Amino acid sequence: MTAKQRNLPFLLTFFYFFSICPAKLVLALSNETDHRALLAFKHGIKEDPHHVTSSWNNSIPFCDWRGVTCSNRHQRVVSLNLSSLQLAGSLSSQVGNLSFLRTLDLDCNHFYGRLPEEISLLFRLETLTLANNSFQGQLPTNLTNSARLLTLNLEGNNFTGSIPDALGYLPKLTIISLSANRLTGKIPPSLGNLSLSHLYIANNQIEGSIPQELARLSNLQFLHLSQNNLSGAIPASLYNISSIKVLAVAGNNLTGFLPSSLFLTLPKLEKLYLGGNQFVGLIPETITNASALVRVDFCLNFLSGSIPKKLGGLHNLELLNFGGNVLGTEEGNDLTFLDSLSNCTNLREVFVPLNLLKGVIPASLGNFSTTLTTLWLDRNLLHGSIPSNIVNLVNLEILSLFENKLSGSIPRSIGELSKLQVLRLYHNILSGIIPSTIGNATSLNILLLSDNMLEGSIPDSTGNFTSLKELDLSRNNLAGAVPDQVWGLTSLSIGLFLAGNALTGSIPSQVGEIVNLAELDVSDNSLSGEIPTTLGNCLVLQFLRLEGNHFNGVIPLSLKNLKGIEVLDLSRNNLSGQIPEFFLELPFIQNLNLSFNMFDGEVPRGTSGNLSAISVEGNNKLCGGFLELHLPPCRSHERKKLHRPP
Fold this sequence. Notes:
Elements: H1 3-20, H2 22-44, E1 45-47, E2 68-70, E3 77-81, E4 88-90, E5 103-105, E6 110-114, E7 127-129, E8 134-138, E9 151-153, E10 158-160, E11 175-177, E12 198-200, E13 207-208, E14 222-224, E15 229-233, E16 246-248, E17 253-257, H3 262-265, E18 271-273, E19 278-282, E20 295-297, E21 302-305, E22 319-321, E23 326-327, H4 337-341, E24 349-351, E25 358-360, E26 374-376, E27 381-384, E28 398-400, E29 405-406, E30 422-424, E31 431-433, E32 446-448, E33 453-456, E34 470-472, E35 477-481, H5 484-487, E36 495-497, E37 502-504, E38 519-521, E39 528-530, E40 543-545, E41 550-553, E42 567-569, E43 574-577, E44 591-593, E45 598-603, E46 613-615, E47 621-624, H6 636-643
Parallel strand pairs: 3-5, 4-6, 5-7, 6-8, 7-9, 8-10, 9-11, 11-12, 12-14, 13-15, 14-16, 15-17, 16-18, 17-19, 18-20, 19-21, 20-22, 21-23, 22-24, 24-26, 25-27, 26-28, 27-29, 28-30, 30-32, 31-33, 32-34, 33-35, 34-36, 35-37, 36-38, 38-40, 39-41, 40-42, 41-43, 42-44, 43-45, 44-46, 45-47
Antiparallel strand pairs: 1-4, 2-3
């Protein structure tokens, strides 16, 4: 029997199987390619806290593995979705072998390393979303092979380099999101070739001008270019894309005037963010026709003139921000625009600080919708009193009116704002007493009333502010003792500022319970008594200012616990005894002022560390110390006194 005859049964069996089941054989070979690619993907994962890939083993078909979706016909992987599972690792280059893949979604994980170039082999890919990971390196330049790609979302990574020009040649691409990376270079004009509805490139380092070609994106709805280094004017033709709902270019170096027709040519505009640029000229009056507008932000530009008065037709308006411009008129009465805003029933936030607005706060403010949570009118030229009907704004959380010329008293009704968290009225000419009813606003965490003409005593009701982080009553005409309730505000962390009043009494030991206090300033009052040793419990103190009072006694040794102290001013008091050596051992101290007291003995030499300024003048019994202090040398008995055991 010949060899051919001996092999004939095998050959007949092979050809019979192949003729009957060719699809099954090819399917098995193809499936194995996907299987190996998935195992390589699993091998790249170094952290899997939720045991997502524990099912990725041979006990079950890979099409049933978590996050894997296969096609019914070919049993090939068409979707790999593992978003928000806290996976960490690198992306295997073998992902490029999943040739039937249409969706790759790894959003909100901890993948790192470079994005493999092999991802461009996925010619059926429609959705690639790898947002909020730690991928780095340059974007793949050969994505043109993925001609079916609809969505490309790589935001929130560490990609560098420029945006590939090749992206402009993906004919079906409708969404590009590259925000929050470290991309440089310019916006490719080729993006104007696409049919984009969403273009997000915010929070990068993109420079140059906005390409004219983007005006060809006739279906564009969302354009986010904020927080880059873009310059020049916005192309006028861009304002003619009538489909735009969100236009965000804030935080760049853009210049020019805003066209008067701005809100007519963008009839669907809902959100407009132009803040932090260099725009000049007037706010377009056509804003009164922008009925779809929800949020508008023109802050930190050079816009001038008056604020359009008829804004009441913006029924969907939630945020209005004109702060940080040069808005205002010679005639004054610049807040009349607030009258019409009372018709905006969804209005939540109004920001118009840091302008040149004149006039009084209109009583119509009390007619605003109860949805209002935030009102900033600070750093203007406003005068008159604070309307008492502000109490109608029952959901108000932030009221900021500082650095104006407001007069009169603080309305007693202000305490009825039960949700008020921040009240900033400093640098005005307010007079009268601090109403005790203010203590009813128990949600306050910031209360700043400094630099006014307030008088009387500090009300005991301030002790009701159990969430207060900062209290500043400095530079008023307040008198009397500081209530124990103030010293009992253990929530204080930013600071307690009572300087420049006529306050009396002492600092009680209770102050040591404010353990998170960063600043304490009671300077220039008439406080007396000894410095409490419990101040040493305030371990995070950075600034301690007790100067200009009548404190006596010695410096407590417990102050050596203030390891974070940077500025310590005890000048102009009646303190006595020796200057402790530990002052020169405090690691962060920069300024130490002990002048005009009654200290005696030798000034410690030690090492000055970070100490850049020290003053001991006006202490006639001191000697020695640094040469820069110009003190007389110590006699022998003075040195013995210094080193005498306690």
